[in-house]
Amino acid sequence: MKILFPIGSFYPTTFGGPGAILYWHGVYLKKHNIQPTFVTTTAGIIDPIISNQFLDKPCGLVYYGKGGVLNFKTIKVMLAEVKKTDLIHLTSLFSPISIICFLYAFFFYPKTKVVWSVRGELNTKALAISKQKKKWLLKLYTLITKKVTFASTALKETVEINKIFPNKVIQIPNVMPTSIKLERKTSEIRFLFLGRIHPIKNLDGLIQGVCNSDTFKNHKVYLDIAGVCDARDSVYLDSLKTVIRQNKMEQKISFLGHVAGKQKEQLLANAYFLILPSHSENFGNVVIEALNQGTPVIASKNTPWQELETYNCGFWIENSPDKIATIIDKAYNLSDLNYQTYRKHALTLNNTKYKIESRIKDWVNAYKLLVQ
Q1: Which residues span the membrane (predicted)?
Q2: Structural domains in the chain?
Q3: Which is nearest to 227 in space by CA: 5, 9, 41, 13?
Q4: Per-residue pLDDT tens for 57-99?
Q5: Dihedral through CA 187, CA 223, CA 232, CA 284, nearest 10?
Q6: Which of 176, 217, 282, 342 could form a disulfide with 296 if both were Cys (CB 3.0 to 4.6 A apart)?
Q7: Phi, psi (deg, nearest 5) at residue 73
Q8: Residue 272's closest CA among 336, 213, 217?
Q9: Parallel, antiparallel, or unpaired: how do β-strands 54-57 and 221-226 relate?
Q10: d(Cα 137, Cα 158) in Å, to the nearest integer?
Q11: Which pLDDT score, from 0 to 100, does residue 372 have?
């Protein structure tokens, strides 16, 4: 079986989690005799990479086109792949590369099966961005996507899809390979945010929350913020730094920039808690990465991570500054025995539900049923 994945950015991009998730998705699909092909761009890739030709990678064939998703050559390559594939798996409702690919397949290859992952784009807060453009596009989709199978990562996202599309939905969480468990090399209490510097991540609420925490203000407790900031969000980043200066927290809150590889794994292992305070999150891949290192997690109720409390490996909270301040105090005051229990249960949750080695068969079976 051949599957085409058009995607705007792909591993080793710094632009969010889907590129990394799909890389490992491809690696493990190949182990089940499925042939993935990725047509993407060089967006967000820092180190030099061979572009404008197909590369044979562990995840499958990958074409990194220069010039963004509207580059004519990249689109031409993608459309040529449509006629060779058994199934197309799209990864964004509103990315031009997905729109063009879908419309081309709809008109010229209507028998080709399509799976469409929405990646949190149907959340109310996400839809509020460029609202009118998305409104009209969604109206068009309701007319022409009747044969599409949508994909979600959690029940919350399945509900969001079915509010607009009455289609079949495949619900499978994001999964990743188990990485080497690293030792925690510090006894410092360092909370960690890892992700894009973007308003939807609620970093303003997080920073105000830690500044409101008596524990954070009066003890040796720190916050590390790791991740890239797009130029278009530089004003937001400046506003965060202003709040930090106003609260005289420059020595306690640090921006680390982009981290990857072993540096990222060690950062996660060293963290006291990972914090994901987002206004909207369809999944939150960084949670899996933290659990994989035995690091407990604090996640907002705008994420689908209620099971952090079910498994006793974290907290699921409202993302207001006051609630964040309260949970910082509570986490700090955990006894060492309770804290070590949280770390142990973090590994249990990851190994039980989010190992790609065991969960990839869910996708393999779903794909095979669709192309029968």
Answers
A1: 87-109
A2: 2-175+356-371 (3.40.50.2000), 189-353 (3.40.50.2000)
A3: 13
A4: 999 999 999 988 889 999 999 999 999 999 999 999 999 999 9
A5: 70
A6: 342
A7: -65, -40
A8: 336
A9: unpaired
A10: 20
A11: 86
